[in-house]
Design brief:
The chain is an all-alpha fold. It has 8 helices and no strands.
Length: 247
């Protein structure tokens, strides 16, 4: 009976580590996609130090989970106590790091409010100055998502105007409609847009557009994170049980 229980534990341990292996592979794939994606998202990530760091953290975490899942599978199948102990210690560190990151994200979630982004935009945005990281990032976001400002074009009323514009409410070029939503896309009517003709402007705010675009993926990412934490917890339990059962 004890041998059957140990054998069952071994294969369950292998199964859980296989899921960790797959989870690491997925994170690794997403991290690589974010860094090399040619559709404009890479430019946004590269221009924002926080997102740039986050992409590499995701890449590193994926690689680590990929490796640990592989080691856990080998340790379970070969019943190697050294590999099992090594796996347990590192998966524990990853588990605690992920849990800490989730708690910090919950605590600082107020920094992702509409008011916060509006305040930062009005304070730091320099319109078409692409040498400025903040402005270049915002221009890329507005072009990619066909949106304007956080709430709409009215966010730019307090922003310094373009040198060539005589309008009191000049709209940034990034808010003008294009045939194709990319920096190389042709403007529908650039002059009319810059002088305030609304039908040639993207009127919807980026906050709403991006929230709607990523709402499904946020819930999916949250569910995936909970699933990964649960799998890691069970994998640690089975690793210790198997470790103690091996003679």
């Amino acid at each position: 009976m004890e041998g059957d229980c140990l054998s069952c534990m071994k294969y369950l341990m292998f199964l859980f580590n296989f899921f960790i292996f797959l989870g690491g592979a997925c994170l690794l794939g997403v991290g690589i996609w974010v860094i090399v994606d040619p559709t404009g998202f890479r430019e946004i990530v590269a221009a924002n130090p926080l997102l740039f760091t986050g992409a590499y953290i995701m890449l590193a975490m994926g690689a680590m989970l990929f490796l640990l899942g592989f080691l856990g599978c080998c340790g379970a199948i070969r019943e190697n106590k050294c590999l099992l102990l090594f796996f347990f210690m590192f998966i524990l560190l990853i588990f605690l790091a992920e849990l800490s990151a989730a708690i910090l994200a919950f605590i600082f979630r107020e920094n992702l409010t509409r008011e916060f982004f509006t305040k930062e935009l009005k304070k730091h945005y320099l319109r078409n100055n692409d040498t400025d990281v903040f402005s270049s990032t915002w221009n890329s976001v507005m072009i990619t998502f066909a949106c304007c400002g956080v709430n709409g074009p009215e966010d730019f009323e307090a922003v310094p105007h373009l040198p060539h514009s005589s309008s009191e409410k000049a709209t940034p070029e990034a808010c003008c409609q294009r045939e194709l939503q990319s920096r190389e896309g042709t403007f529908v009517n650039k002059e009319a847009c810059l002088t305030g003709v609304e039908r040639f402007q993207n009127r919807q705010g980026c906050y709403t557009v991006i929230l709607n675009s990523f709402e499904t993926y946020v819930y999916l990412a949250g569910a995936l994170a909970i699933g990964v934490l649960a799998i890691e917890l069970f994998a640690m339990i089975f690793a210790m049980c198997l470790f103690r059962g091996i003679q």
